[in-house]
């Protein structure tokens, strides 16, 4: 298993020697471990300053209760509301800005990495409850402010000394706290205090900071450090990073598919086909390559594999999602609508599985699997005639070792007349 | 048919849901907006969480943990991450009581 090089960096060897952690690569084993009540999350990468105590790291009744509280944001098909009221208006605004400002050659252009990240930062701000993030420019400023934080949280995958990156990330988080977090939560505390009737309480904002101001989770109450970590880890980091890069991958795969199936280009305007394409892209390109678990007691998996109490394992999502025993001999190939065994989701374990399944899955996929953020965004882009920029190739980000599904830029252009697909 | 009488009617308003145990089974009973009654296993097929702690959306019940949804009329899973159906049971009103057809739990030999 490849990790960062050994160094004197205080964060690198903060935890168990990675060489002693067995990688689990079979889909059935990975899924079973995700679902097992005795396999607990394990923070392997020395980022307690960012992730400690957050919903992804806790387990048991505490996790169940936290998840239930956070579920208030998306319950009642809340994913639809956030998409329709925040995400898609941002996507549409971004798209119109690009289409209305073509280059000298009459071709509108944009960059898919920036396009996606700004949209998901706007969404993250709404989910968290950050005030003053109303325009694309505001979302871009938030993205720039959060960049060092996200780099620090991914630094385990980097080579060399993580120390300066982690220090800058903590500094950036303090800046985020002062500029965005504290004003927003202070305002919500006042709103909650003033909401003395059921009607007023029902009218409170539906966002993370309001849940915290309402003191609905005892661990959050009075622990501003945990509140900040929860907002940053789950929404700023997970909610923008994986979301945006999986969208770029989905576009990339669809564009390649179109080159190979020129007669099928019209299908890229069909939501049902795009849903299958998005699921395949998610399956093939999980942004977070590894999830870590610890056996809290001896475990024998259905496959016969035994884990001893205290044993750490690394769940290799990429390998599991290309398991030929499950996905067929062409598991490495992008095949929208591939036949799957009963009970296997078309995106595999890209969102994890079980009780710790990615909180944002309904936003990305949609409850019906068709109307999630990625399908809707791709539909808008293909309707505007999106294609790769013929003059500027995409630039991969190769600085993060095994986290190799990233781009620094992915230039795109649109058909001058806005013709679809 | 194993009908069980449950004195619940007044405690199950229109658009509401309740969890209860009948013949050893945890059930979720639902009264939809048109007053129709339905009963299903009170366990989400995704992660074995209690559906009666969720929300009724029309004729669908939403699990509050991961937002899987089920059609209360058929038990069919209608929203990811739920993929497997949940069992349903016949239920009717008899005055203020409910009559729910729940097979007695089989005792292992």
Features:
heterodimer, A: 421 residues, Cytochrome p450, three-stranded antiparallel beta sheet, 16 helices, 11 strands, disordered N terminus, B: 109 residues, mainly beta, Rieske Iron-sulfur Protein, four-stranded antiparallel beta sheet, globular
Q: What top-tier CATH class of chain B fits best?
A: Mainly Beta
Order of helix and strand elements from N to C terminus of chain B = EEEEEEEEEEE
User: Sheet bearing the most strands of chain A, described?
Assistant: 4 strands, mixed
Helix proportion of chain A: 40-55%
* Topology pattern of chain A, helix = H, strand = E: EHEHHHEHHHHHHHHEEEEHHHHEEEE
How many strand segments of chain A?
11
Q: What count of structural domains of chain A?
A: 1
Rounded to an integer in angstroms, the radius of gyration calculated over CA atoms of chain A is 21 Å
Radius of gyration of chain B: 13 Å
Describe the structure.
The complex is a heterodimer of chains A (421) and B (109). Chain A is built from 16 helices and 11 strands. With 421 residues, chain A is of the alpha+beta class. Chain A has a 4-stranded mixed β-sheet with strand order 1-7-4-2. A 3-stranded antiparallel β-sheet of chain A has the order 3-11-8. In chain A, strands 5-6 form a two-stranded antiparallel ribbon. Chain A starts with 21 loop residues before the first strand and ends in a 7-residue tail after the last strand. In chain A, β5 (299-300) and β6 (306-307) form a beta hairpin. Chain A has a single domain, classed as Orthogonal Bundle (Cytochrome p450). Chain A has helices at residues 27-35, 48-51, 60-70, 78-99, 112-128, 136-154, 163-194, 198-202, 208-213, 224-238, 241-260, 271-284, 317-320, 324-327, 361-365, 373-383; strands at 22-24, 39-41, 109-111, 290-295, 299-300, 306-307, 312-316, 386-388, 395-396, 407-409, 411-414. Chain B is an all-beta fold and 109 residues long. Chain B has one domain (3-101): Rieske [2Fe-2S] iron-sulphur domain (Rieske Iron-sulfur Protein, 3-layer Sandwich), CATH 2.102.10. Chain B is built from no helices and 11 strands. In chain B, strands 2-3-4-9 form a 4-stranded antiparallel β-sheet, with no helix packed on it. A 4-stranded antiparallel β-sheet of chain B has the order 5-6-7-8, with no helix packed on it. Chain B has a 3-stranded antiparallel β-sheet with strand order 1-11-10, with no helix packed on it. In chain B, a hairpin with a 2-residue loop joins β10 (91-94) and β11. The two termini of chain B are 22 Å apart. The model of chain B has no long low-confidence stretch (mean pLDDT 91). The interface between A and B is medium-sized, with 23 and 18 residues. Chain B: Pfam families: Rieske (PF00355). Chain B: Its cofactor is [2Fe-2S] cluster.
């Amino acid at each position: 298993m490849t990790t960062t090089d050994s160094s004197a960096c205080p964060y690198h060897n903060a935890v168990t020697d990675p060489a002693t952690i067995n990688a689990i690569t079979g889909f059935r084993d990975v899924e079973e471990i995700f679902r097992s009540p005795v396999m607990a999350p394990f923070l392997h990468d020395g980022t307690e300053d960012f992730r400690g105590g957050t919903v992804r790291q806790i387990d048991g009744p505490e996790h169940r209760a936290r998840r239930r509280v956070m579920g208030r944001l998306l319950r009642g098909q809340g994913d639809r509301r956030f998409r329709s009221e925040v995400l898609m208006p941002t996507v549409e605004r971004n798209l119109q800005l690009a289409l209305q400002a073509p280059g000298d050659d009459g071709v509108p252009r944009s960059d898919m990495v920036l396009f996606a990240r700004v949209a998901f930062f706007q969404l993250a701000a709404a989910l968290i409850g950050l005030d003053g993030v109303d325009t694309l420019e505001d979302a871009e400023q938030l993205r720039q402010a959060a960049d060092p934080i996200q780099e620090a949280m991914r630094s385990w995958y980097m080579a060399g000394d993580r120390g300066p990156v982690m220090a800058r990330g903590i500094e950036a988080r303090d800046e985020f706290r002062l500029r965005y977090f504290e004003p927003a939560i202070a305002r919500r505390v006042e709103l909650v205090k003033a909401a003395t009737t059921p009607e007023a309480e029902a009218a409170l904002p539906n966002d993370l900071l309001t849940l915290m101001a309402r003191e609905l989770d005892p661990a959050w109450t009075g622990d501003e450090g945990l509140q900040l970590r929860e907002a940053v880890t789950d929404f700023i980091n997970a909610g923008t990073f994986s979301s945006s890069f999986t969208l770029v991958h989905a576009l990339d795969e669809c564009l390649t598919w179109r080159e190979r199936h020129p007669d099928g280009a019209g299908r890229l305007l069909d939501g049902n086909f795009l849903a299958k394409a998005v699921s395949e892209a998610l399956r093939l390109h999980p942004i977070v390559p590894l999830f870590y678990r610890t056996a809290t007691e001896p475990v024998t998996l259905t496959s016969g594999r035994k884990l001893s109490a205290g044993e750490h394992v690394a769940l290799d999502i990429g390998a599991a999602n290309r398991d030929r025993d499950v996905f067929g001999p062409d598991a490495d190939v992008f095949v929208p609508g591939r036949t799957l065994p009963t009970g296997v989701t078309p995106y595999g374990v890209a969102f994890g599985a079980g009780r710790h399944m990615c909180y944002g899955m309904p936003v990305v996929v949609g409850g019906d699997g068709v109307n999630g953020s990625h399908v809707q965004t791709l539909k808008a882009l293909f309707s505007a005639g999106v294609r790769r920029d013929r003059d500027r190739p995409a630039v991969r980000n190769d600085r993060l070792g095994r986290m190799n599904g990233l781009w620094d830029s992915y230039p795109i252009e649109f058909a001058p007349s806005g013709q679809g697909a | 048919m194993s009908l069980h009488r449950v004195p619940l009617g007044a405690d199950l308003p229109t658009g509401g849901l309740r969890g209860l145990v009948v013949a050893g089974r945890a059930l979720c009973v639902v009264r939809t907006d048109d007053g129709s009654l339905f009963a299903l296993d009170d366990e989400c097929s995704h992660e074995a969480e209690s559906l009666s702690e969720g929300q009724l959306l029309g004729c669908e019940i939403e699990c509050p943990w991961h937002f899987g949804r089920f059609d209360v009329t058929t038990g069919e899973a209608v929203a990811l991450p739920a993929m497997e159906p949940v069992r349903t049971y016949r239920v009717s009103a008899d005055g203020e009581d409910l009559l729910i057809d729940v097979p007695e739990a089989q005792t292992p030999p």
